[in-house]
Specification:
Strand content: 15-25%
Shape: globular
CATH superfamily: Beta-grasp domain
Largest sheet: 5 strands, mixed
Distance between the termini: 47 Å
Order of helices and strands: EEHHEEE
Number of strands: 5
Number of domains: 1
Mean pLDDT: 92
CATH topology: Ubiquitin-like (UB roll)
Structural class: alpha+beta
CATH architecture: Roll
Strand order of the largest sheet: 2-1-5-3-4
Length: about 90
């Protein structure tokens, strides 16, 4: 089984310029472990000290928010396209 993970440009400085990579992870926990091993600098950006995904990182599977697919319990399917997207906020009213 293989999934394709796509990263925004903001994260590529932590992956030596890679915008995409393949993973054999079966779920979100496995993907985070894969990122720990392959891209430790990225892992520090998307995970907190508790080892969990930071709240401002959104995960999309085939353009669907993973929270609506079961969150951490969602089992990736062969060929899934996964995107890690940081929330963007700021500015003044």
């Amino acid at each position: 089984m293989s999934i394709k993970v796509t990263l925004p440009t903001a994260f590529t400085r932590h992956t030596d310029g890679k915008k995409q990579f393949d993973s054999a992870a079966e779920n979100l926990s496995g993907l985070l472990t894969d990122i720990d091993q392959s891209f430790p600098a990225l892992a520090t950006q998307i995970k907190g000290d508790d080892g969990k995904l930071r709240k401002f990182i959104n995960i999309y599977v085939n353009d669907e928010d993973i929270r609506f697919l079961g969150g951490e319990t969602y089992a990736f399917q062969d060929g899934d396209e996964v995107m890690l997207i940081p929330s963007i906020a700021g500015g003044r009213c």
